[in-house]
Write a structure and sequence with these properties.
Radius of gyration: 15 Å
Largest sheet: 3 strands, mixed
Strand content: 5-15%
Number of helices: 5
Shape: globular
Order of helices and strands: HEHHEHEH
Helix content: 40-55%
Structural class: mainly alpha
Oligomer: single chain
Distance between the termini: 20 Å
């Protein structure tokens, strides 16, 4: 968690430490980080995390999603089979939070 929030802070400050763009991704297998993403949604509603940061944070639910997101980010073709099957859905954190709130409108 410490490293995650350090990275999020660097994204907020635009000081990620590289001159090349890099993706920031949260690997969320089996919903392991759903609570963290709910917390980020609360932080967004309270104004401590901005929309820009949530839009830059990618959320992948399986390894295929990670591979596809990285390939898309860096413009790398995956080939006919998509490197392991059908394209996986990867959301940015703001889309994830919005979808979660639709499912559970009382989620705070």
């Amino acid at each position: 968690m410490d490293e995650f929030f350090e990275i999020l802070t660097l994204v907020q400050l635009r000081k990620l430490g590289t001159r090349f763009p890099v993706p920031v991704m949260l690997f969320n297998p089996d919903g392991f980080y759903d609570g963290l993403l709910d917390f980020l949604g609360s932080c967004h509603r309270l104004g401590t995390v901005g929309s820009a940061e949530l839009n830059e944070l990618l959320v992948a639910e399986d390894v295929g999603g990670v591979v596809h997101a990285l390939a898309e980010f860096y413009g790398i073709p995956l080939g006919e089979d998509g490197a392991g099957g059908a394209a996986r859905k990867v959301l940015n954190a703001s889309e994830w939070v919005a979808a979660r709130q639709k499912k559970s409108p009382n989620n705070e």
